[in-house]
Fold this protein.
Amino acid sequence: MEKQEKNEILSRAVRAGKRTYFFDVKATKNDEKYLTITESKRKFNADNGTFFYEKHKLFLYKEDFTKFQNALGAVLNFIETGVIPDDALFDTENNRSNSDLSFEDLEA
């Protein structure tokens, strides 16, 4: 078994075609658990003839689990049924619809 990082508690991998998704439960120094979701895709570097992995990572903290789960469930249900839930597009914490958000809002 590969040696895990000190703060890694649990890990699961999902292979999906050319991508692999990793769901890793980790802990802070204060033992607060959080989730990282990593998308890893194998790519070829034509310049030097080698393969490399392109990775994208999300960090999800405990206080956001319910909101994330609800939003994910709503969009998955929409994909399955075509029904748009009334509350799926509204962010009650910031009192504005998600359609008012842009990627610029996410920049630090």
Observations:
- Residues 17 and 89 are 30 Å apart (CA to CA).
- The chain has a mean pLDDT of 83.
- Helices lie at 65-81.
